[in-house]
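From the shared-data thread, chain only:
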Amino acid sequence: MNIVFATNNPNKIKEVQALIPSHIKLVSLEEIGCTEDIPETQNTIEGNAIQKADYIKEHYGLDCFADDTGLEVLALDGAPGVFSARYAGPQRNAEDNMNLLLSELDSKDNRSARFKTVIAIHFQGKLISFEGICEGEITHKKIGTDGFGYDPIFKPTDYKQTFAELSLAEKNRIGHRGKAVSKLVNYLNMH
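Structure, as tokens:
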């Protein structure tokens, strides 16, 4: 079974391909000739995931899924949330985003946060979405070199390491994207 994963992020493709059975092959946007930027103009994580999946279905007519992920920090009223990738500006720079977030939390005692992923899938004429959440906290400094995005400053609940210190297998087992993809795989396996 081939299914389009509506992302240009090679890290996400690698992470998700490691989670799904080998009989499901992810097809990238590049492989279907989609080089344009897919709009992400919704004000919710779920809205953006649906918008991206709708775009591929509408313009390419292919079964596909898209995800959107946000880091929600309690002391910042859920920010950066839907703006996680562009938190420090349109350049989408992870270092800038982490530095801004750490500086905004300087004076805050509550560092509780959660990662939330929503996957929207167009499959066999239906649109369905799945959610995965990983609770944790923001560290005081960057620790670790693996992963991507906010991984060096996010420590999942009951762990002493950040996402950037965990193996990909461990991150996938406990992480937000892993939880959402697990629901996606269960759904695909039933069809």
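The helical segments are 10-17, 45-60, 94-104, 168-174, 176-189.
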